[in-house]
Amino acid sequence: MKPESWAPHVTVAAIVERDGRFLVVEEHTDDGLRLNQPAGHLEAGETLVEAVIRETLEETAHPFTPHALVGVYMTHFARPAREGVTYVRFTYCGGSGEPEAGRALDPDIVRTLWMSADELRACPERHRTPLVMQCIDDYLAGRRIPLDFVHTHSVGPPRPVSTQK
């Protein structure tokens, strides 16, 4: 592997809790149906906060308002016969409104669910990654980092934020 060809994938995830239950998605993956927080990749020109707002809306139809950063997580997946993949995940917690009526979810999303931490702990084999529970546990432990901890320095005009699919 050439050092100049490697780059980590930057992802974002949202933790939304209501009455002791967490908003999760059931999604199609290469390993079958899995549970995950609403999550996805940072797109060119976005801030991390813009990305988590967009991804949560696209995957759940729920508008999301980030309140704090819960943590930054790095995972490396080794893949036989090819280069491994590294993900750097920024997980935010916050509130959400009611789902937008009639809004289609991303194609890989089967449905949204509200699950308790105990229900999630009871089915680790269904989690997309071990980060699903790690992020919930960190949230429940009270980990909160102010949103202004991560600085974005833009070059050029700001990119308009789109909530339309």
TrEMBL record:
Cofactors required: Mg(2+)
Enzyme Commission numbers on file: 3.6.1.-
Organism domain of life: Bacteria
Alphabetical list of Pfam families matching this protein: NUDIX
Record keyword Cell wall biogenesis/degradation present: no
Keywords, comma-separated and alphabetical: Hydrolase, Magnesium
GO MF annotations in UniProt: nucleoside diphosphate phosphatase activity; ribonucleoside triphosphate phosphatase activity; thiamine diphosphate phosphatase activity
Enzyme class (EC, first level): hydrolase
InterPro entries per record: NUDIX_hydrolase-like_dom_sf, NUDIX_hydrolase_dom, NudJ
Domain Nudix hydrolase residues, every copy: 7-137
Subunit organization: Monomer.
Family: Belongs to the Nudix hydrolase family. NudJ subfamily.
Record's protein name: Phosphatase NudJ
Source species: Paraburkholderia sartisoli
